[in-house]
């Protein structure tokens, strides 16, 4: 995987802009108002010494059948009366915030994370194992420890078919540059980047998600049961640069981009935007930038 000096995620870099909104709940709880996923302590190897966290991680990766059953339950829940769905929505989201919650993160900040962790390992995606029944290597374990740290030790100890079957490569160590190059490729394919906790606030993985095959994104966007936060940003189109090619619409996972036939321009509904920034990766006109969510009134309090 080679480098790409013209990587479009640098187009319209995330700007810093004050406003009336606030940061996400985890930023307030787990990093004193700073971006929680950019704080090294939330990746600490010491957090993996907690026996409950270790057991949770073991169960998560070893019991993929449970995830398949959860997906079936969500389909049934969609048909339930509104008050039941509303109640279950609150229960599931509250539980997931404690155990396994995510947040969308743009590429610039993924690079920052790769800059301070000490090891990166690529592994088969649990969601794709459940939804596709085959291996797709879209998930990355990050660690402050060398050689994958304690997380890799835990995963290697599991008797898990999707991690160690005859068609799997197991845990594949990659360099920072290799990981960044792979993420750029994922982005051009329309996958958005997310960080994930294993008993919050410990962050153990970065994934590349889409609505078709990712259970987490499907749960959040399709079933309207949030198990991930939106990014700290929202996208905005510069109408003077947009030529109406609609390539950004093709890669948006959230249905946030529409096309104005009268103006022949792309339009972003910032209330729907999750701020992943992947629309920038296909815009040859540098017409899309990210703005701080808290500085955009219609989106400032949408998480």
Which descriptors apply to this entry?
Alpha-Beta Plaits; 303 residues; two-stranded antiparallel ribbon; 7-stranded mixed β-sheet; alpha+beta; disordered N terminus
Can I get a quick summary?
The protein has 303 residues and is an alpha+beta fold.
Model description:
The structure is a single chain. The chain folds into two domains: 1-20 and 230-303, Alpha-Beta Plaits, CATH 3.30.70.20; 25-229, no CATH class. The chain is 34% helix and 16% strand. It contains eleven helices and eleven strands. It has helices at 25-30, 51-62, 64-77, 82-99, 107-116, 126-131, 149-156, 161-164, 176-188, 215-222, 247-251, and strands spanning 102-104, 119-123, 139-143, 172-174, 192-197, 203-209, 228-229, 233-237, 257-260, 265-268, 288-292. Strand 9 (257-260) and strand 10 form a beta hairpin. It starts with 24 loop residues before the first helix and ends in an 11-residue tail after the last strand.
Spans of at least 5 consecutive residues with low confidence: 1-20
Helix content: 25-40%
The total tally of domains equals 2
Q: What's the helix-strand series?
A: HHHHEHEHEHHEHEEHEEHEEE
Q: What proportion strand? A: 15-25%
Q: Termini separation (Å)?
A: 34 Å
Please report the number of helical segments.
11
Work out the radius of gyration. 19 Å
SSE order and pairing:
Layout: H1 25-30, H2 51-62, H3 64-77, H4 82-99, E1 102-104, H5 107-116, E2 119-123, H6 126-131, E3 139-143, H7 149-156, H8 161-164, E4 172-174, H9 176-188, E5 192-197, E6 203-209, H10 215-222, E7 228-229, E8 233-237, H11 247-251, E9 257-260, E10 265-268, E11 288-292
Parallel strand pairs: 1-7
Antiparallel strand pairs: 1-5, 2-3, 2-4, 3-6, 5-6, 8-11, 9-10
Helix pairs in contact: 5-9
